[in-house]
User: What shape does this take?
Amino acid sequence: MIPIESVIVTQYLLIETCILEDGNLQSVMIDITNKKKSEDVKNRLDHQLLHSQKMEILDRISGGIAHDFNNILQALVLQSELASSLIGSEHPVALDSIRKISETANRGIELTSRLLAFSRKKPLEKIRVDLNQVIENTGELLLHSVGEDWKVHFDPSSDGLGVWIGARHCSFDHETTWRCR
Assistant: This one.
């Protein structure tokens, strides 16, 4: 037995029927398949255009927000530098807090500059980062973010995979399994 290839063909027909004066029926059948396919293609293209326009608007809005946010962070860095120069070395705890504010704002500036580069469709600069250093720098921010009921443990390693977050009553072993009491 030879397999027969089957093809499904969709065809659109417009059938008009009328009653003639002598009482007979007359029908006219018009093949509107090409017209229907053209309308489908037009609708699909219209949908793609609308989606593209929405994405362009969203891109402009997010670029504007990132730009405004960048300006706010720049002001925060300048104010923290001014505050640290006014406080002086007699208040080391305050100076450390201001330094952390400035570092966090600078990380936000780097992030918003990447967002702005993306919104302008510029290629992003690829840089190598030490993941251990990045995590260590954001450790206190993470501690404040996860809340008092959670414990954060950072164990720097050569592979950069030494971070665990879990409830305070849980302990961790080297394979990142959780043992909860």
Q: What stands out?
A: Residues 162-181 have pLDDT under 50 and may be disordered. The radius of gyration is 33 Å. Helices lie at 33-87, 92-119, 131-146.
